[in-house]
Write a structure and sequence with these properties.
14 strands; OB fold (Dihydrolipoamide Acetyltransferase, E2P); 4 domains; Rossmann fold; five-stranded parallel β-sheet; alpha/beta
């Protein structure tokens, strides 16, 4: 009996057809290991338990729909179809969807993004901006056909007048909604006329509200120069946008109430301020009245003031005159003493005692040595009384002690 011989590739193809025809959609639970995501965008990993392991591949078109990031060690349920990788003849699972075991994918994605942004400080209180007290223009990022915008407008009409509302309509759910919301926030910041932004929508399922849990919306809110109030869903709903925003409102209606003070509240506040101002002014006027009365009692007639100043001036004048006379006497006595001392030191006093001062004529050079003149030189002699002019007839030189 003869047997048919087939090639390896043919056998692998038979296995592949058999698996793909009988295991079109299966759910497999296991632990992720060896997870990788190269630049192609495809995901490759091994799904294992304590008794076996299975190679898995998830192509880019399906991987980009994941709302969370798969990680090694994560227990998951993979949905896909069985196949054979022909080149190596290996069994593999072509994964079309992944859900974490025991927790939904959306909830896991929420927690992952929450942890990531918290580490970057996007939720920090020091980054929160205060809301303006009395905004003139309010920017609203929401659907133009949803209930949220109608609730917001009703509250604003009831609580305040003269406000401008700048609506930037966007899709608030579905594919591309997150990008529209982020772009709308950036557009209103560039436009610049709004004083505060309300970003949100009405209630819905977790899937309906998911656009406000996307990273690009969170970063757009964090980058906003205008204060942002997040108003997503109902009071029980909580989103990433609520954590990043400067203020969270439980509903769109509450957001409108937060950004605009009630007209009646403002009027009551103004009345209270007027009463306080009146009391302060009354107290101030009473203080001024008492002070004026005190000054009035102490006020002196201008004539009396002039007479008092005249008497004071007269007294100062007399003191000045006495001081001047005393100073004159003191300086006169000092001057007399100095004159006597100067007269004692005067060369004329020396001459009066019989000494004479000889000078060479006509240069008036004082003569201290007989060598300074020659015979027949003219000299002038200053006496105690009068002056002589003489001619040198003889010179007598004296030897100095050294020469002797």
């Amino acid at each position: 009996m003869s047997q048919t011989v087939i090639s390896v590739s043919h056998l692998v193809e038979l296995f592949k057809d058999l698996l793909e025809e009988n295991f079109v959609e299966i759910l497999v639970e296991g632990e992720i290991s060896n997870f990788s995501k190269p630049g192609s965008g495809h995901c490759y990993f091994t799904l294992k338990d304590d008794r076996g392991q299975l190679r898995c591949a998830m192509f880019r078109s399906q991987a980009r729909l994941l709302r969370f990031t798969p990680e090694n060690g994560m227990q998951v349920i993979c949905r896909g179809r069985a196949s054979v990788y022909s080149q190596r003849g290996e069994l593999q699972l072509i994964v079309e969807g992944i859900e974490p075991s025991g927790i939904g994918g959306m909830q896991l994605a929420f927690e992952q993004l929450k942890q990531k942004l918290a580490k970057e400080g996007l939720f920090a209180e020091e980054h929160k901006q205060p809301l303006p007290e009395f905004p003139q223009t309010i920017g609203v990022v929401t659907s133009s056909t949803g209930a949220a915008i109608h609730d917001i407008l009703n509250v604003l009409r009831r609580r305040a007048s003269g406000l401008k509302v700048l609506l930037r309509p966007v899709r608030v759910q579905g594919e591309g909604a997150a990008r529209e919301i982020a772009e709308a926030i950036a557009d209103l910041n560039r436009e610049g006329s709004a004083n505060v932004l309300i970003v949100g929508r009405g209630g819905g399922s977790l899937e309906d509200l998911w656009a406000f849990n996307e990273e690009e919306v969170a970063r757009a809110i964090a980058a906003s120069k205008l204060p942002v109030v997040s108003a997503v869903g109902h009071e029980v709903d909580f989103s990433i946008s609520d954590l990043v925003a400067d203020l969270r409102a439980p509903t769109p209606t509450a957001a409108a109430e937060l950004v605009v003070k009630n007209r009646e509240e403002v009027e009551r506040h103004c009345d209270q301020l007027l009463l306080r101002l009146g009391r302060v002014m009354q107290g101030r006027l009473e203080m001024l009245r008492v002070g004026f009365a005190s000054i009035q009692r102490r006020l002196i007639s201008p004539l009396e003031t002039l007479e008092l100043r005249r008497q004071q001036l007269l007294g100062l004048e007399q003191r000045l005159q006495r001081s001047i006379r005393w100073q004159q006497q003191r300086y006169r006595h000092s001057l007399q003493q100095l004159a006597e001392r100067l007269n004692t030191l005067s060369p004329l006093q020396v001459l009066a005692r019989g000494y004479a001062l000889a000078r060479l004529y006509p240069s008036s050079t004082p003569l201290r040595d007989a060598k300074q003149v020659n015979v027949e030189d003219l000299i002038s002699v200053q006496l105690g009384q009068g002056q002589l002019e003489a001619r040198v007839t003889k010179i007598k030189l004296e030897k100095s002690p050294k020469e002797a």
